[in-house]
Please model this.
Amino acid sequence: MPQLNPNPWFLIMLMSWLTFSFLMQPKLLSFLPTNLPTSKTKTILNPTPWSWPWT
Model:
């Protein structure tokens, strides 16, 4: 079966990963995110107990 022969496909996979790693990844990582994470303080809400009419 020709699909099981890794000779041509391994080289194609290796070249595509190298292309992504060395050419595309630095370009993609250079973009600044539009929504920067902010450090917000957590607000702790103290809920008031519910007054049930039948108790």
Observations:
- The two ends are 77 Å apart (CA to CA).
- Residues 6-29 form the longest helix (24 residues).
- Helices lie at 6-29.
